[in-house]
Amino acid sequence: MSLPMNEPLPPAGSNLPPARRRRTRRQLYPFENGERGVFLTDLARRLVPTTDFFIFSLLAGFVLAVAILTDAPAIFVLAALLAPFMGPAIGLGLATVVGSGRFFLQCLGGIILGSLIVFAFGALGGLVGRFIPGIVINNSLYHTAFSWPDFLLLTVGAALSTFLLVKNPNQKPLVTSVAIAYELYIPIAVAGFGISSRIPGLWPDGLIVFLVNLAWTALIVTIVLVLMRLRPNTAFGYGLAMSIVLICFVILIALLGFGSAVSTQLALPTAVPTQTLVPTPSSTPTLEPTATETATPTLIPTNTETPTLTVEPTLSQAYIKAPDSNGAIIRESPNFGAKVIASLLNGYLVVILPETFDDGTTVWTHVRLNDRRDGWIVRDLLTTATPAPGW
Length: 391
Hints:
The chain is 53% helix and 10% strand. The longest helix has 29 residues, at 101-129. It is elongated and about 90 Å long. The chain has 14 helices and seven strands. The protein is of the alpha+beta class.
């Protein structure tokens, strides 16, 4: 029996069960008959790394090496602009929706290989930096520590990139991808620079920041996809999503210092053993002979001779104040070619030691850092925080 031609055909999906029809209407993308799978497959294909990804990673790595050597913030931004579309980083989150272990490994391998290229250029820049006297790396140090503005920038960049890519898969969100490249490629390049230049504070700090930012990117992408009704459909997808959440949760606990707090609390019970106080009554007989030994008061005058600590008040303090940069270099000896001990930002407080050295052109001052290390710094880069003779 055929339907009359003047009557409308029943809408597609009307023969579905009521629960499935309601779920279809709630979806942002009501895919039917495999359309959802076709959409996700096409989206995933655009995130797999290609030759262009590695070529632009090579270009960004070269510019980052120059940025670290020149300590110029504008060149750091230029390197992020020249970086490729960070599709593999977004693909780590999309793999949880697709539920494909092969796709996850493709994206992970692509982002690792691209990062190794940037790391190698950073290490090459570190070898060059060893021959540059008085090199300043203040801007590089900013990218080896965690900060909430960086997390906010990475969160916004990953969220907007994912949203725009899902809304319009035919166009790559290159502008928002710059934020992801900025937070991933700069720390790994700084880590490579630190491992070859042997300047403290860069390696492995930059590597840790890179790994944390990569895991955070995958988590944000997964959350945005879930909010856009693109949920995992397989057990592997849910397991991968939970793994990413747990990794980020552990990282946040470490950043907030909960681990150290727990360790100190667990160490407190070891100081409780009051059982050592029980044998004290047995020591009362020893008090009788000690009373006869009147020579013990002679020990008191000997302690009065120990105030050799009077030297400490003579040590004054000073702040790092470099007018032409954001900080100064502390060296092992009073020489511009000496080994770098630390790179301190302006405002850092050091202790001024009595020794000074004048090589005829520069006056060097012997200082002590907060971690008890000693080094030498150009005297003109210090401003006294406490009164000191001759300053």
